Amino acid sequence: MKHVDPENRDLFAIADLAKEFGISTRAIRFYEAKGLLSPERVGATRIFRRRDRARLILILRGKRLGFSLRDISDYLSLYDADRTQQVNLLSEKVDERIALLERQRDDLETTITELREIRKLADRRFAKA
User: Fold this and answer.
1) Tens digit of each residue's pLDDT (9 = 90 or more) over 8-18
2) Alpha carbon of 12 to those of 5, 16, 62, 67, 118: distances in Å?
3) Which of 27, 40, 42, 78 would be 86's cystine partner, CB 3.0–4.6 Å?
């Protein structure tokens, strides 16, 4: 059987997508239940189209970058809408995420500095004993 690059396929089974992206079929069904994916059905079988695959890529990227499912849903709801709105929402959410990560980085650096100071004090006290 000839291998077809996923980029060039039109139809996908749930197992195909799960394997390609290294996630469980349960995760894909969860995204469907949340309204993020809308596969067609033939009987009990889910048929995913290229559009569903593209949406899944965006969902997984959004999750990897730390966006909530709500943020991802808001973005996807604009998928076929005005591109200006989509870009504006994306820019706003990215800026918020960057600000949060920068605050977390600052907190981590402060914590690491404090822990190093505690370690130095402990080492000095142990050396005196």
Assistant:
1) 688 999 999 99
2) 12, 6, 21, 26, 55
3) 78
Q: Are strands 40-42 and 11-12 parallel, antiparallel or unpaired?
A: unpaired
* CA distances, 128 to each of 10, 117, 121, 122 (Å): 72, 17, 11, 10
Query: In the block, which residue shows the tokens 């990897």?
Result: 64
Q: Which of 80, 81, 30 is CA-nearest to residue 56?
A: 30
The owner of tokens 């998928």 is: 79
Amino acid at site 83: R
Question: Which of the residues in the chain have pLDDT under 50?
Answer: 1-2
